[in-house]
Amino acid sequence: MYQREYEKRIRVGLIGAGSHAYRNLLPALHYLPVKLVAICNRGREKLDKTGEEYPCHCYTSSEEMYEKENLDAVIISVSPQMHPVLAKDALARGIHVFLEKPPAMSAQEIRELAEAKNGCVVSVGFKKACMPAALKAREIAYSSSYGGLKSLLAVYPMSMPAQGEQILEKREFTNWLGNGCHPLSFLLSIGGRVRAVTALCGAEGQGCVVLEFENGVIGNLHLADGPHPVEQYQLFAEKWNLFIENTDTVVLNRGIPFQYAYTDNFAPEGDESGAIIWRPQNCLATLENKALYLQGIVQELEIFCHAVLNGEDTGYTSLEFALEVMKVYEAALRSAGRRIEIERG
Question: What region holds the Gfo/Idh/MocA-like oxidoreductase N-terminal domain (predicted)?
């Protein structure tokens, strides 16, 4: 749907008018049940230029915005160092919060946010767990027709920083925090909670992060840093495998009747075997081929909006899910080749 088609909308303020918010979050509001009433940004130049495009009030102080505007919710897209601070301030005022990823600098800060919810909805922007390709992957992995998931693979353009313990202690921001949550959130949305993590990396940080899920599934995040970014996901089971290429192509390989040395037809009769391919069509200017939908940006915000309006579950954008992602993030930094068990309780 589109914003003007919703009968009931929530009054929203945006904190942070940086690149991501400007390119992705603000355009995504066009498809959601919201009314943007205010934008807050410390820098006046970006604030004023952004405010020229949207019919809302502009503030350089969130406190002033809260005092002058009657907000139902706030979307916060700043630094992970400031996310918990700004979120707690909004929650104390009874305002629902959507946090862009990464939501914080540590798992402990997520725990503290959960304690500060004050009866409000708090969602985190894990778009890779909300994108259509991820929904199709979960449907296949846990369906009665397929099921039996054994292992997972994610290939993502990044590396693991050295001296992980020091990074955690000093609360340093790295790309592993900023973007590692993308493949991690996808993997955890498929495999569930993780029992243990082992990171095996070379001198420059390329390598793999092995996830042992509590359900017995094994996950591998291949750190493929380099000049040609690539994003791939694969799910493996006994009788099928599923491949996701760059978030816009999903291939379900069901195999064919096969006998080594005798099978002579790669496309046997019938439609019960072989591959099924899903991809957006680009003939028309439709929603399903827009990056905002392919990447899960509209969907992550839609989950938040419907939770505020209808009290629905926030699922893979919840603080509970964010805590699991942050635990794995921290364990991988600490690993340095050692097996790190995830603490429970």
Answer: 10-126
Total-model pTM: 0.96
Domain spanning 3-126+309-318 has what CATH number? 3.40.50.720
Architecture, CATH, for domain 130-291+325-341: 2-Layer Sandwich (3.30)
As a whole number of angstroms, the distance between CA 239 and CA 35 comes to 48
**Residue 155 near residue 230 (C-beta atoms within 8 A):** yes
What are the residue ranges of helices labelled H in 102-163? 107-115, 127-130, 132-141
Question: Residue 186, class by beta-carbon neighbours within 10 Å (0-12 exposed, 13-18 middle, 19+ buried)?
Answer: buried
Token match 């919060």: residue?
97
Nearest to 29 by CA among 59, 46, 50, 44: 50
